[in-house]
Write a structure and sequence with these properties.
The structure is a single chain. This protein has 2 domains: 2-93 and 212-231, no CATH class; 100-204, Rossmann fold, CATH 3.40.50. The chain contains 8 helices and 12 strands. Helix 1 (9-20) packs parallel to helix 8. Strand 3, helix 2 and strand 4 form a beta-alpha-beta unit. It is an alpha/beta fold. Strands 2-1-3-4-5-12 form a 6-stranded mixed beta sheet, with helices on both faces. It has helices spanning 9-20, 45-55, 117-122, 127-141, 156-160, 174-179, 206-213, 220-226, and strands spanning 2-5, 24-27, 36-39, 59-64, 84-88, 100-103, 109-113, 144-147, 165-168, 183-186, 201-204, 217-218.
Length: 232
């Protein structure tokens, strides 16, 4: 098993923690097919993961945690002390929560959270194709629509105040939506439940999701101390 870092400083920091745990790490330019660890999908990591998928070889993907993550600030600087999710052979581990409250109704005003081009690539689609499909479906059903772009300056909570449901590709923003009591759907994210879109408003239990996901995320200190145990 080898961890691969890129020229991104966050990737380097994450892989440094694995190196300190005793796992071999290399620059992505030295990639060889075999069980691998990656942070993020840019700078060659995503292509390497797709290659391993084709070969049926396991990989582990790290990114910002499901909870307690720290994101880039306004100056594009990242505090590395937050939590990082670990996913085997995917970008987000889907779950089927037990405590699901289904209201027999359709959403009236929906926030769309499209994928980035890089995330879409990992699922054989594009942001344009995904947006076109769901714009068409929502228009047919007569819904009001709010599209939240990734680089918007409007606080997420403020945007959520104006909708009753969120439809995301795989954004972690659905956790904030659930916290605020909004119905959520994802096509490639945590819940993958768009079959409910035409008949039900699904509301999830945030504490149950925390109990499922918190054991699957770690700080860099925990990765350094526990190493390969974090991948199990």
């Amino acid at each position: 098993m080898i961890g691969y870092y890129t020229d991104n400083t966050v990737s380097q920091g994450v892989m440094k923690a694995f190196a300190q745990s005793g796992i071999e790490v290399r620059h992505i330019s030295q990639f060889e097919a075999g069980p691998s660890i990656f942070y993020g999908i840019l700078r060659g990591s995503g292509v390497a993961m797709r290659f391993l998928e084709l070969l049926g070889i396991d990989y582990w993907y790290l990114d910002n945690g499901y909870f307690d993550a720290i994101y880039l600030d306004e100056f594009k600087i990242k505090d590395m002390s937050g939590k990082y999710r670990v996913v085997k052979n995917g970008l987000i581990e889907p779950v089927c929560p037990y405590n699901l409250n289904l209201k027999v109704s359709k959403p009236s005003k929906v926030m769309l959270l499209p994928p980035t081009p890089y995330t879409a690539f990992m699922h054989d689609t594009t942001p344009e194709d995904w947006n076109m499909e769901w714009h068409h479906r929502l228009k047919e059903m007569g819904h009001e629509l709010l599209v939240r772009e990734k680089n918007t300056k409007v606080p997420l909570a403020e945007s959520l105040n104006h909708v009753d449901a969120v439809l995301a590709f795989n954004s972690m923003a659905i956790m904030k939506a659930i916290e605020m009591g909004k119905a959520v759907y994802t096509t490639h994210g945590c819940v993958r439940n768009t079959e409910l879109f035409y008949s039900h408003l699904p509301y999830y239990d945030l504490e149950e999701l925390k109990s499922i996901y918190e054991p699957k995320q770690f700080t860099l200190e925990e990765i350094k101390d526990r190493g390969v145990e974090c991948l199990n």
